[in-house]
Amino acid sequence: MRLHLGIDVACRASHRATCTDATGEIQFSGRRFTTTPTDLERLWDSLPTTDDVVAIMEPTSNAWVPLAAWFQRHGAKVVLVPPEQSADLRDYYSKHTKNDRLDSRVLARLPLLHPEGLRERSDTGPANALRRAVRRRSSLVERRTATFYRLDALLELLGPAWADALGTGSYSKAALAVLEKTGADPHALRRLGRKRLAALLIRHSRGQWREEHAERIAGAAQQTLQLWPDGALDFAELAEDIAGEAHMATHLNAQITTLADRITVLYEEADPGRIIASGPGLGVITAAGILGRLGDPNRFTSLAGIRAFTGLVPRLSQSGLTGRDGPPTRQGDPGLRETLFKAADIARHTDPTLAARYHDLVVGKGKHHNSALCTLAATLITRLAACWRDGTLYELRDTDAREITEAEGRQICATRYKINKDDRAKVHVRRRSQRLKDPTTSRREKESPSAPATGPSRTTLRTKPRDHHEPLDVR
């Protein structure tokens, strides 16, 4: 006999559990327990004798992870229900009531109400070390990017010459060392001197930045003094802010480097055959990002399910005999979509089949670069998942199915499917012309319903109601 155990997971309070049999008859309802071995054993012993238990719960924070792991170790199947799905069924079950007992009852009876929507969860999600490491690295990269943007904004106060001297958007170790030591203070750089500045650059850049870069930085400092004479800008206070941001960026760089080494080890354990990394142009970090966020591809029943999980498939709108494809659904992990988007942009420069598809979408059909890459990303994850299921490496082939090397693939993509600026400009003009011709998308045909009036609705004050035969005042 199969038992369904609906669990309303709580973060701090006690959980609620309701048990039903295969027909939906309640065995017990609203039983309280906590995530402790004693309570879990007591709950398990209270279940009727059976070898088939399905634990159904919502992914509430990370509190569901130890519960799912405990039930899986005891032979139960674990099903995670999307919160929006259980909320809809809860509204149907009881329109005006919301309590923990009702939540556990809805989850326990979910197999009867929506059996096709249940998918067994084989992994423990955030408990997976590779997934946590990949997500943490992504978070650190975002924080480092935000720090670089703040550095750009602060250096703009000193003048445009600093962008040419240090670069913008992505600062090297040598540039961060100079900013951390001097804060881009022109007086501090003058006291440091060109010789010691050049030695500092050589040491932190391993000889790539030398005396010519020191001259550029000194020239930028001189230009700053000319732009801000007579103490119009407090260089010391600004230097404190710049040095602090540079120190933060240096610390984030060190953490990202350390985490990359850890991710490499975890990926080798998860994918010893390096199947995901065999994708065209993909490195270990990108492959780990895909595998860590996607999970085991074998847990999906079909390749279409994997594409749907990424959220890169178009949203389908049907009514009667009409139907159209909309924008991507954007369901699932946004970090997975971002990783696949970047991986597709890398792969199209190595795989001729992907390059040909991209060329046809952009030049032939006039698609935007981002739209074309979303299509390529869905194709790429389908191929990688198929390779994972078959246990084979990604085979790079030309459009005529001839097997080629990565060097040959890059040469073919660069010569046969290269899109220059003129081609992109023509596509942009054609796409803009199509938007203007379509009244449903043209901005010129739209008026904002909430736009304020340019003047008063009337120019004269009416003291009595207007007669229906009186003409309107259109002045």
TrEMBL record:
Q: Which Pfam families match?
A: DEDD_Tnp_IS110, Transposase_20
Q: Which residues form the Transposase IS116/IS110/IS902 C-terminal domain?
A: 274-359
Instruction: Give TM segment ranges.
Output: none
List the biased-composition ranges (Basic and acidic residues): 435-448
Region feature (Disordered): 424-475
The record's listing under InterPro entries reads: Transp_IS110-like_N, Transpos_IS110, Transposase_20
Residue ranges annotated for the Transposase IS110-like N-terminal domain, each copy included: 5-159
Query: Cross-referenced PANTHER family, in alphabetical order?
Result: PUTATIVE TRANSPOSASE FOR IS117-RELATED, TRANSPOSASE FOR INSERTION SEQUENCE ELEMENT IS1111A
- Stated name of the protein: IS110 family transposase
The organism encoding this protein is Streptomyces rugosispiralis
